[in-house]
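QA checklist item 7 of 12: single-chain prediction sanity check.
[x] sequence parsed
[x] length recorded as 536
[x] structure emitted
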Amino acid sequence: MATIAADTGATLPPPTRKDIQLVITASSLGTAFEWYDFFIYGTLAASGIIGRTFFPGGSELLQTLFAWAGFAVGFGFRPLGAVLFGFLGDRLGRKYTFLVTITLMDIATAGMGFVPSAASIGLAAPCILIVLRILQGLALGGEYGGAAIYVAEHSPPGKSGFYTSFIQASVVGGFILSLVVVLTTKSVLPAETWQAWGWRLPFVFSLVLLAVSLWMRLKLSESPVFQSMKAAGETAKNPFIESFTYPGNLKRLFVALFGIAAGLTVIWYTAMFTVLSFLQQTMRVQETAAQLIVGLGAASGLFWFVLFGRLSDRIGRKTPIVVGYALTLVLLFPVFWAIGSAANPGMVRAARHAPVFVSGPHCAYDPFAAKQVDDCGKLLDYLSKKGIPYTKGRTPVTIVAVGGDAIPHDSPAELDAALIKAGYNLDKVIPAPLDIVLILLAILVLGALSGVTFGPVAALLAEMFPPRIRYSSMSIPYHIGTGYFGGFLPFISQYIVARTGDPYAGLWYTWCVVAMALVVTVIGLKEPKPGHAAPE
């Protein structure tokens, strides 16, 4: 069986085992560090610090929505980074392109640690933060494709899925590292110091990661596939244009975008960021406890990515992805119901036996408004901040009913007292040990769904596209899919929950995207032969 590294007829000597180990280690660590840089924002956004510091608003929910919008902006610019660095990667080489991307990423991340708060410099603060998120998005658009292709093009026959699965696992490693650094920093600093300025240290820490990444990646040689193409004068003159004009490539781009990237990314972000936000905000789990639980669950599930990447070398890339999509459609809601029941059993019981009903003449609720226009909207805003599920109705006067009985709601104190009497616990909670085990098992299931779809994908995408335009053709659909379908997931799901009052309603976004991806993949993806690339 031909290997990806031989796609161009290279006559270069095959890399030694030591070379392969260095390639995988340096590429995986660099990818983990770069995703740490990108995810540290999301980790702190889930705790509310980013919103309070840079996006002042009339409500905590509005601050959260603005913070997640800033998170999405970085993803929105990933496709542009894919175009720019994909062009450079196909023209100038894989190695030096992702050296540039990781340097840009770490400098932008460290810069976030020095941006003054909105209280100090006003609107300039969120503007500077958004510019730095844009730079992060551009850098990430070139990093993943470069690292994945670099490893794939060094892989011996029948090993591409296994070797590139470490790149996939390193993405999760970046998320875990962000939690570890945050938790470690919080543990060594007084709470007041952490809230005041200590949260900036995880951003500045990226400078240390930059030094390690550059030290390791400068030891690497160029990809043998690119060396062969360059020696033969076969590199693309304009890889961006060729990606859309190369015979058969438009269909491959379509399937890679809507069938592969869109589906796997919403599963992954749901398994990580949605779970973290769901625990901390919706189910009111104490912040540190939620971060520890999600971090431990994510770390426990790392093996799924390597397992299914290796398995794809034997059974193909398409089968595990299709099975993963189908299982996600069946298991997504039950797994989150299990997490909710274990995270805050008291609130779940109260919501079942004493549901909250709010109604009024209009009952209009705008999560983006600094101040709601009527009493009903103000009540819904208040309940959303408390994580209390509710249903809405329309009546001549504003009423709040709990378990069918109207309750006083003229002041927050009266409303809280009535909710507490009905069994709602409004304090932050730490789940019981057995409940924590149940949450971890649920996260492990989500990790399996993510691993079965994400583990084989680097090898799959490398095999889908010809070597001369591989960097561009792989990066563009991947980062459009992950940037828009995945990057806007926290914002869209949070908005859906806020509008409906149903803590699980945001999952419908994930479900619909996965359903679309399943149809596109089943119909449009032709199973590539492991180790082979699309024909030149």
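[x] summary fact logged: The beta strands are 356-360, 390-394, 399-402, 405-406.
[ ] second reviewer sign-off
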